[in-house]
Each structure stands twice: as C-alpha cells, then as structure tokens.
C-alpha cells in the first residue's frame, strides 16, 4: 500500500506552469510568483511575513530547498517546501508536545498531523525526523499502539498494481512503513501505509526490529 503547520495544510511539490520565474545571482531559475504557502514558509524561515514573494524570499527558500533535496529548487513556497520546513523545525525535539510515549524500548512515533516520524528510545532520538505520506481519506493509517510483526526487504503490493514496497515493516494488519518510488509530496495520500522516501526507508529498516513499538497519533491534514 501504498503530506506542516496546522491541520488544514496539505502539500504538493511542483510549481504551476503559469508561475513566472526570474534569475538568481547564480543564474539559476527562481520563482517570482507568490506561492500558496508563502506566509507559513516566511514565518518558519524567519523572513518578513507579508505573504508576498520577494527576490530575498526566493533566495532563502531556494537555499533551503537545495539543502533538503526538494525539486524543483526554485524558491517557490510549495506544499513540499512547507512539509520539509515542518520536518526541519521538529528535528531538534520532535516530541516537544509529548504525544509519543517515552519508554525504555524503541518506539517509532508516527505523527499524522505533521506528516513526519522518528524513533526514540527513552528520550533519545535514535532515528531522526523524516517526512511521511500517510493514508488518504477513507483509507486512513490506523491510530494507536502497534508493533512491527513482519519485515520484508523487497515487497510488492498485491492490491495496488504490484507497486514496489521496498523495506516494508508491517505494524497493523496490511499496513506497513515502507519506501515509495513516487513523489512523497503529491496526491491525497497512500492507501493506508506510511510512505517514506526510499533512502529513509532503508535506514529505518536497519533500526527497527520485530516486536518494536509503532505509535500512530494525530490526524492527516486535508
């Protein structure tokens, strides 16, 4: 089976074709259009919050996009950019709100509201915060306490057109945490699984073991 600030935010990763572009000092394309998440992006990047794209805004946003591997890195305040800014803001202390239980054992914390996850053992983060894509309306990722009961490095979906599910770790019946080869920041969501970027899924596969806890909480933005 196969994306943030506030529950009303959703995201996509591309600049509309009609949006105009300019050039940065380095000669690379830079969006001059104001993005749909301009104010939220300005606030998180500590820019002047006026909801209007400026050349300075574009340069700062573009630099962040390059660091995080967001494509296109054009300075446009897209959903993907807001999603990754939310992830970046959470990295220092992802459990600041105390939503994920602290235990001596490993706990994979899946935050549907912010569309991110991490793994902690006690108060130590043992797998840093990464973006996710959870289940779309009608096929939501199930909340609550779960545990990893099956791992498969190379798996495919028998329900959804034999879609690849690399580094699958099942935690609730047919729902698994696994890599996705599609754009993580596009579409309404998965078919219930927790999608990760392939590299993130590969790293997580080495961290979690059979029996480790998976706690899913919050609600995916619409």
TrEMBL record:
Gene3D superfamilies: L,D-transpeptidase catalytic domain-like (2.40.440.10). CDD domains: YkuD_like (cd16913). The keyword Lipid metabolism does not apply. The active site is at residues 178, 193. It holds the Pfam family YkuD. Pathway: Cell wall biogenesis; peptidoglycan biosynthesis. InterPro entries: LD-transpeptidase (IPR050979), LD_TPept_cat_dom (IPR005490), Transpep_catalytic_dom (IPR038063). Keywords: Cell shape, Cell wall biogenesis/degradation, Peptidoglycan synthesis, Signal, Transferase. Residues 1-19 form the signal peptide. It comes from the Bacteria. Residues 106-217 form the L,D-TPase catalytic domain. PANTHER family: EXPORTED PROTEIN, L,D-TRANSPEPTIDASE. This is L,D-transpeptidase.
């Amino acid at each position: 089976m196969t994306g943030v600030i506030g529950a009303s935010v959703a995201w996509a990763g591309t600049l509309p074709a009609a949006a105009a572009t300019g050039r940065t000092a380095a000669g690379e394309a830079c969006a001059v259009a104001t993005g749909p998440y301009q104010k939220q992006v300005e606030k998180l990047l500590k820019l002047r919050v006026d909801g209007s794209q400026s050349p300075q805004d574009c340069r700062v946003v573009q630099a962040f996009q390059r660091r995080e591997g967001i494509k296109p890195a054009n300075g446009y305040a897209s959903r993907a950019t807001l999603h990754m800014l939310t992830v970046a803001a959470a990295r220092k202390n992802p459990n600041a709100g105390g939503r994920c239980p602290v235990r001596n054992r490993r706990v994979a914390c899946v935050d549907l509201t912010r569309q991110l996850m991490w793994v902690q053992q006690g108060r130590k983060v043992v797998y840093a915060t990464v973006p996710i894509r959870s289940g779309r309306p009608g096929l939501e990722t199930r909340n609550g306490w779960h545990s990893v009961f099956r791992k498969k490095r190379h798996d495919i979906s028998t329900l959804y057109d034999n879609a690849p599910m690399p580094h699958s770790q099942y935690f609730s019946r047919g729902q698994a945490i696994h890599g996705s080869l599609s754009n993580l920041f596009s579409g309404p969501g998965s078919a219930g699984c927790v999608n990760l970027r392939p590299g993130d899924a590969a790293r997580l596969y080495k961290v979690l073991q059979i029996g480790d806890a998976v706690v899913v909480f919050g609600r995916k933005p619409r």
